[in-house]
Design goal:
- There is one protein chain.
- A 3-stranded antiparallel beta sheet has the order 3-4-5, with no helix packed on it. A two-stranded antiparallel sheet has the order 1-2.
- It has about 150 residues and is mainly α.
- The longest helix is centred in the last third of the chain and has 17 residues, at about 110-125.
- Strand 3 (about 55) and strand 4 form a beta hairpin.
- Helix content is about 45%, strand content about 10%.
């Protein structure tokens, strides 16, 4: 079962800040995918703008140009997805669907990720609609919460 509170925090953030959501790249320029935002929000980062931060892709860290403060992730891409999945309480198949398979939706990637994320939340809260149930099925995900996932709400 997902960590519903953490999922809601990330989904609400990207929904309220669509210009900072890019499901097709972990973290790029001033945007990030759901996995990127899960890790960034956990570290207190709520905005990444090219004008304010110098992103060092090789080290997954940002330097605030004005203050010189470095926000380091110290993670590789796989580690970023693993950490995000842990923070959100996602099972392996949920991680794969939400972080990787939605990115393959092309121009609809952001929308697909949000729809799937909210479907996972609804399932784990016991408020799954028929449309959300069908969506989970399309991604091969169970409509019943998994009790074995760490971080359940």
């Amino acid at each position: 079962m997902s960590d519903v509170a953490a999922m809601r925090r990330v989904l609400t953030f990207v929904q309220d800040n669509p210009d900072q959501h890019n499901q097709c790249d972990w973290i790029c320029g001033s945007a990030a995918c759901l996995a990127g935002w899960a890790v960034l929000l956990d570290r207190g980062v709520t905005e990444i703008e090219d004008a304010d931060y110098n992103f060092r892709r090789d080290r997954w860290e940002w330097e605030d140009i004005a203050t010189g403060k470095v926000v380091g992730l110290d993670l590789l891409r796989k580690d970023l997805a693993d950490e995000a999945a842990g923070l959100l309480g996602l099972a392996e198949e949920e991680r794969e669907a939400l972080f990787c398979r939605t990115a393959g939706a092309g121009r609809r990637a952001n929308e697909a990720a949000l729809e799937l994320g909210w479907a996972i939340v609804a399932r784990d809260e016991g408020s799954l609609t028929e449309k959300q149930s069908d969506l989970l099925g399309q991604y091969g995900l169970s409509v019943v919460p998994s009790p074995s996932t760490v971080g359940g709400a």
